[in-house]
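Entry type: protein chain
Record version: 2
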Amino acid sequence: MSTKHKETPHIKPNGVEIAETILLPGDPLRAKFIADNFLEDVVQFNEVRGMLGYTGTFKGKKISVMGTGMGTASIGIYSWELINVFGVKNLIRIGSAGSIQDDLNLYDIVFAMGSATDSNYAHQFNLPGHYSITASYELLEKAKKVADEKGYPVRIGNVLASDVFYNADPTAMERWSKMGILCAEMESAALYMNAAQAGVNALCILTISDHIFKHEKTTQLERQTAFTKMMEIALELAE
């Protein structure tokens, strides 16, 4: 859809189109890396608050990419505006996560089929019970097919979307791990709930950047530029 004349307090495209499929890294510099290295005919559509956004083509298909920042509140704002103001239909978060399983290692790729959370984001929907937060099966199925074709092994399962990065409870992650949670990140739950309410598709693709129990981690530069396999999978999901 055309974004001409549309803007929000956080996204100002100045008439540049935002594609119906968008990749959403947390780091805006990862968005720039994707635009510079994977897309053709690139035009920048956002720089408000330093949250860089670009639209271009990948294998002839239009696609956008934009940073979302860190945490529930940030991705909650950006995904809501992209869906409800700019008409985005497919939102693919490509982020980093901390492993909490012994057999899930640095650089492994995870598809978040479900999103457990300690956030209270769902309270706004006034639901008469607990909501099961899940990915779009349509996007999940497509992404798994792409990964298989590329020969990229992936883990599919439940992840934790936490509002807390520095947790005062040192036992929290151990308890999530015992429930089979693969890894921890901070955005999938809000993204999935916003998409579900609006009837659009969302998927969270993660690369393991650190291991919480083994105290292993990648560098900031690696997180920005080296997680290319998940980028390649996500780019193939353009309509």
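Comment: The domain at 21-235 is CATH 3.40.50.1580 (Rossmann fold).
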